Amino acid sequence: MMSMRFTARARRGTAALAVVAALAGGAAGCGGGGDDGKRPDHPASAARTTGSDPGTQEGRSDQPLAELRGSDGLGLQITSAQRDSGGFVTVNGTLKNDGSQSVVIPSALSGNETEIIKNGRSLGGATLVDPKGKKRYYVLRDTDGRPLTTTGFSTLRAGDTLAVFMQFPAPPVNEVEFQLPTFSSATLHISG
């Protein structure tokens, strides 16, 4: 009997691992291409830069799709919103502290869903809104409830930037409204 339970658990674990690997592979395949492997392998490993260097990756436009203002001098530049054939949209951007002091990233950015909050700070509160279909699309989660977005950050020093990403189910339209708690909203055009 114990062997059957172990086998069932192992099968569930293997299935969960396969789903996570497929989603992670899809996330790595999104974006402008030609990034020479400089893209973080894991959402929590997003790179930080200092100063005024925009950190623009190859294949991305110098002009952001949108610039959103948040509290305490925080800003978010959306650099791409790419539809993938796998049925999701990846939004990439840069979170920046334009203020003169270090800022603790507001916990509100994680949203208010218990499943996401228990996994630490993230951008899990982000949504895409389809104004025509009147539907809201939330950040995707893996099989353990972790949001498919940048995680593991808490403070940004003055002038620092943090490369961020968020993945959503793909809406049937190309024009959506991007919303993130404590930030202004913006209209995005989804490419791909």
What does this structure look like?
- It is a single chain.
- The protein has 192 residues and is of the alpha+beta class.
- It contains two helices and eleven strands; from the N terminus they run αβββββαββββββ.
- It has helices at residues 2-29, 114-117, and strands at 48-49, 66-69, 74-83, 88-97, 103-104, 127-130, 135-138, 155-156, 161-169, 175-179, 186-189.
- Strands 1-9-4-3-2 form a five-stranded antiparallel beta sheet, with no helix packed on it. A four-stranded antiparallel beta sheet has the order 7-6-10-11, with no helix packed on it. It has a two-stranded antiparallel sheet with strand order 5-8.
- The longest helix has 28 residues, at 2-29.
- The chain is globular, with a radius of gyration of 17 Å.
